[in-house]
Amino acid sequence: MNATLADPLIAKYDVAGPRYTSYPTVPYWDVTPSAGQWIEHIRDALGAAGDHGAAIYLHIPFCRALCTFCGCNTRITRSHSFIPPYIQSLLAELDLYRGHLGASKLEFGELHFGGGTPTFLTPEELESLLKGLFERLQPRADAVASIEVDPRVTTSAQLEVLARYGFRRISLGVQDFDPRVQDIVNRVQSEAQVREVTLAARALGYHSVNFDLIYGLPLQTLASVDATMDAVCRLRPDRIALYGYAHVPWIKPGQRRFTEIDLPEGEQKRALYELGRQRLEREGYREIGLDHFALETDSLWQALTSGTLHRNFMGYTTAFTRPMIGLGVSSIGDAGDAFAQNEKDLQRYQERVALGELPIQRGHLLDPEDQVLRRHILRLMTRLETHWDEPDDYTDFVATAAQRLAEPAADGLVELGAASCTVTEKGRGYLRNICMAFDARLARRMPDKALFSRTV
Ligand SMILES: C[S@@+](CC[C@H](N)C(=O)[O-])C[C@H]1O[C@@H](n2cnc3c(N)ncnc32)[C@H](O)[C@@H]1O
Ligand code: SF4
Question: Which of 125, 158, 167, 243 could form a disulfide with 162 if both were Cys (CB 3.0 to 4.6 A apart)?
Answer without folding.
Answer: 167
